[in-house]
Amino acid sequence: MWTIFKLQWQRLFKEPVLVLLFLGLSLVFVYLMGGMQGSSSIVVNTYSEELSSEELTTWIDRLNEEDTYDFVETDYESVYEALRMNETPFALELNEDNYRFLIAREETEVSPIIQYVDRLFTNEQLLQEVRESEGNEVFDLEEFLTVNIDAQTETASSNQVNSIHILTGMSLYFTIYSVLFLMMNMIEEKNKGTWNRLIFSPISKTQIYLGQLLHYWLVGIGQIILTFTILQVFMGLNLGNNYIPMLVVASCFVLSIVSLGILIMGIIETPQQLNVIIPIVATGMAMIGGAFWPVEIVSNSVLRFLSRLMPIKYGMEGLRGAILQEYPLSELGEPIVILLLMSVFFMGIGLNLMERVSEKRSL
User: Start and end of every ABC transmembrane type-2 domain (predicted)?
Assistant: First the structure.
């Protein structure tokens, strides 16, 4: 087993371009599609045609007391041009007694921001009424109750959910490519006769398969861990510290892909056929499973049913639950069990087909 395992790693170290290529692609796609800027704050262009510069600055300072939003001072002409060119979805106009949102297109962030601004304006109006009732007497505000809320606001969550969705989807998508293309070595060994010589060698079949599969499994796990580490350390994406559930889910997902690879290797006979099949399988699985867009937005019942058959769907669900909700392993039982069942199903059929192919070639 360990001899086979070491030989696979030696082969990978001699030709590491494939894995490095897909690792780089996953980083590039996550960065470009997710818009990683090291911050999850939402920029809100703010202007006023009634307030003075000092009053506008004071209001913006108050609005920026929460890190979720970044209210930026600007002027009407810049806002109008940005809205007209679709560079920003909305903007905020502040007046002495009210405010107004200019909305060019509907976004999920609009409603929470409106609620946030309305709350500040309501508090200011209440304070102003108290001042007037007390003869404009100066008084201090004191906090009598402080509530610590661990959950994120709706806007912050939606912003982070988008980044995490892209991160998990692209990472798992390119991991499928890496694992399946590396498993092409098994097809080459079958065509060259090396696989049959291994089967009839003193090494047991169990050791041969374990040595091969353990190598591919570790490569997939390593790519996911390295992708997450680079994005968190160097690109500022917050993945939390729920590492054990994340690792377990990722391990189960890679195991299902390795098992799927065994099934494909038992069906495909030549590397040329595999070069055609792998992009179809990987991209089709990613599209139907929700790696490119959320499954929830798909209205077709057939596609929604097919998405439940894709390992990548459950891998993404488990990773999102571990990262965003910080679920323990007990809360991630469903995606983990489904991935393990898929692994057993794919592996059982795949090994049976591999053995039949080996018997035919030996005859």
Answer: 128-357
Largest CA distance in the chain: 103
Dihedral angle sign, alpha carbons of residues 309, 310, 315, 320? negative
Q: What share of the chain is helix, strand, coil (3-state, %, to 5)?
A: 70, 5, 25
Q: Are strands 99-103 and 90-94 parallel, antiparallel or unpaired?
A: antiparallel
3-class state of residue 93 by DSSP: strand
Q: How many CA atoms lie within 13 A of 243 on its CB side?
A: 5
In CATH, what is the architecture of 42-133?
Answer: 3-Layer(aba) Sandwich (3.40)
Return the closest-CA partner of residue 18 out of 170, 173, 175, 172.
175
The gap between the terminal CA atoms of the chain, to the nearest Å, is: 26
Backbone dihedral region for residue 314 (phi beyond 0: left; psi -120 to 50: alpha; all else: beta):
alpha
What is the 8-class DSSP label of residue 220?
H
Residues of the chain with pLDDT under 50: 36-39, 147-157, 362-363
Under DSSP, the state recorded for 99 is E
Asked if 85 contacts 45 with a C-beta cutoff of 8 angstroms, the reply is no
At 250 the pLDDT is: 94
For residue 12 the two structure tokens come to: 């990978």
Cα separation, 16 vs 10, in Å, equals: 10
pTM of the entire predicted model: 0.68
Domain map (residue ranges) of the chain = 2-36+153-362, 42-133
* Interior/surface letters 224-257, b for 16+ CB within 10 angstroms, e for the rest: beebbebbeeebebebeebeebbebbbbbbbbbb
Task: Give the burial string for 44-69 (b: 16+ CB within 10 Å, else e).
Answer: bbbbbeebeeeebeebbeebbeeebb
Q: From residue 72, how far is each of 34, 195, 312, 320 by CA, in Å?
A: 22, 64, 39, 31
Q: What's residue 153's pLDDT? A: 41
Give the sign of the dihedral formed by CA 165, CA 167, CA 173, CA 176: negative
